[in-house]
Amino acid sequence: MIGNNRYGAFYPVSGNMDYAAQEIRKYSENLARRSKMGLEGDGMGTDSFAAKLKRADEFIASGESCGATDSIGIILRQMGEAEAGGKVTKEVYHNGVRVYVEKDSMRGNSITIGGSMNPEWIHVSTSVGTVHIDLNDMEGLMKCLDMFSPEDINLILRKITEVRQSKDALQEIDNMRNTPVERAEEAEEKEKKE
Predict the structure, then answer these.
(1) Residue ranges of the domains in the chain?
(2) pLDDT at 50 (0 to 100)
(3) Smaller CB count within 10 Å for the chain: N or C?
């Protein structure tokens, strides 16, 4: 690793450059020492780097898969199950955007992405649950799309397109009603009624 001193010259910086290699070396030295003493096992806790590495190797060797390939599915899997009438929540920040995940025993899973000062929410049913999206915070949604499976992304984008098309149609109808010809016709109709 190259460091930068205050005089503008580069010089090598000594430090822990390969953490994984150092941890494996310490683990193997500890295992060899325990073996010489006649002790079994590695003597490391379940949260040690070596224990996690060993569990990962065993998982890969078993041929199992985690089941979820998208980040939201993995988050939901890591969360505990909601008890009857209760819910379990988790707040995650992904690429700087707040993602609020909730498991509810009555309503199912819901994922809320972002939010603005003036939210305009739409709700999309996906394979992982209902996704709540603020149409006024599309930048936040775009930063979080990589958390979903391709099928869910398709559903989300399709729903946004449908909502925007319907809004455009309603806006067009309102604009037609507000044209001078329409207003003149409405005035004539009022005069006839009176």
Answers:
(1) 19-64, 71-177
(2) 66
(3) C
